[in-house]
Write a structure and sequence with these properties.
Blueprint lengths: L11 H10 L58 E3 L2 E13 L8 E6 L5 E7 L4 E7 L29 E4 L30 E4 L6 E7 L5 H7 L2 E7 L1 H4 L9 E9 L37 E4 L2 E2 L2 E4 L3 E8 L6 E8 L6 E4 L4 E5 L2 E8 L4 E3 L4 E7 L7 E6 L21 E7 L28 E11 L5 E7 L21 E8 L5 E5 L4 E8 L28 E4 L3 E8 L12 E7 L2 H5 L3 E6 L10
Parallel strand pairs: 2-5, 4-9, 10-14, 13-22, 23-25
Antiparallel strand pairs: 1-2, 2-3, 5-7, 6-8, 8-9, 10-11, 11-12, 14-20, 15-16, 15-19, 15-21, 17-18, 17-20, 21-22, 23-24, 25-29, 26-28, 26-30, 27-29, 30-31
Amino acid sequence: MVGDETGRSQSDVARRRFLAAVGITGTAAFAGCSAKSIGAPVAAGDSEDAEGVSDGTHSSPDLERWVDEIPRPGVIEPSGTKDGQPHYEVEMAEIEQKLHRDLPPTTLWGYGGQFPGPTIEAEQGEPIYVRWQNHLPDEHLLPEDPTIHGDIIPYDEPGARVVPHLHGGNVEHESDGKPQAWFTRNFERTGPDFEKKDYYYANDQPPATLWYHDHSLGITRLNVYAGLAGFYLIRNDHERELDLPTGDNEIPLVLQDRSFNEDGSLYYPTDVPATEEDENDSHLDPSIVPQFYGDTSTVNGKAWPRLSVDPEQYRFRLLNGANSRYYNLKLLEYDDESGDTGEAGPPFVQIGNDGGLLSKPVETADRLELGSSQRADVVVDFSEYAGETLLLHNNAPAKYRGTSGIGPEDSEPLPEVMLIDVAAAESEQEPTQLPDELTQVPEIPIESVDTERFLTLARQTDEYDRPLYALGTRNEKIGYELTDPVTETPTLGDTEIWSLANFTGMSHPIHLHLVHFQVLGRQSAADYDPAEDDIDLDALDAPESYELGWNDVVTVDPGNVVHVIAHFGEFKGLFSDQTGDYMWHCHMIEHEDHDMMRPFKVRSPDDEGGSE
């Protein structure tokens, strides 16, 4: 294989010492780094589970389930043109919206006066401009923690900081929504990376389900939780010719978890609870929490909703828009009166994922896994379930460790997501067949790889003894800070393999801006030494069916290495050549804010310099 960015200089002895230090030996899968130091093991179910995901005492109001129909976010129209291309104006403002029949209106931050925001529909190869207009109040809706990047964020100055990011967009770096490209109301104040008011989206990529959300440094978790998220769909003529469900039978569904106070306001924890191991009683308040898991399911902004469908095929564009929660989904028969579940319902037939259509439809064998920010484009045929009610069921525990980590001792804190009511059949209908081939997904040849990188997911503690997750390299496995110098500097036109090794006790959804990659496979971290081992594709666990095609997020389970391959630039007529500064990070948003995010720089072939 091609050498990596540092050469094969690390000794096997050093590697084995590190793996032993973090608790990964043999084929052990669930180990991590100590809550107090990097050197002691943390097994699954140990102190990482003792972290506060909330204050442990709050419960949302007891809401009657299944009383609200799921709304469908409307499609926004351009307000005019710029340089001959459609120009959109999308306002960010504080709004009030009913999230449940029995809750008072909830104060939220929304795009276009709604939560989730209006859907933007674009055509492949046809650029658009968007001016994101900040009309938010000066004071944040939720408590900010000024210890998070407090040396580079002006928490003490007025104005709500926002910067929208088109997640999954193959875009110029000036329009990527960098964390430090934030701006306040009417662009009165801007961050150091702010460059332009009108974002330019070229849409030179396959038709796909993208989404836009806030990405402001240190408060992304708060801004997204407050409601700043919406769908962005790219379409083309080829997809239209596939005769997939359209119109009322095509429904974007964003799955999120929220917690509420009695007055309908959003509840979000503001401090990390004390544990028996704490050496003192001093706790920051407000403080970031390691993860957040709400106790109420919301879909398209409605709590515990139901969806009415006909006994036909439907296309669901599923998005996990939760801050931290994983979903592992399946449709089950459901008795609405008793609340009992029955046999499995219709399967998900996946036709696309993060980056667009798969080459052919894939029926999920059991459940469909979605980490935070992942999308699944699925078709469900309800023709054999006329008159029945189905439950969208989730069996992923809050602290997710992949499907192998689900057992009877694990809790299921949010198993019920939404109900689906299938109308009675008015007449017998012939089932609609999906095409055998959806599109051609060109495979990135492994023979074309220029650089291999070994990148680590590690757990540390910060100066306040709070859990802190970080991203590192072979030479700095415990991870870097966001502001440390760039270590990943691919060259435009190059192909790279990024081997992501998880040395923590939980799963992480890792997202790369700009590029879409293909998953090569997985193996135990104990069985792969980047200094000595080639990547043997035949020895890897194959990608899951929902990971085929183009991805911009991949789940890395504890103790595993996931190998992904990416081409930086145009590839066989897809995507575009872009250089500049981008980000890669964990998409559990609490982790992203603190401090599991790193920059990477795509260099021009004429640039000098390299990476670690």
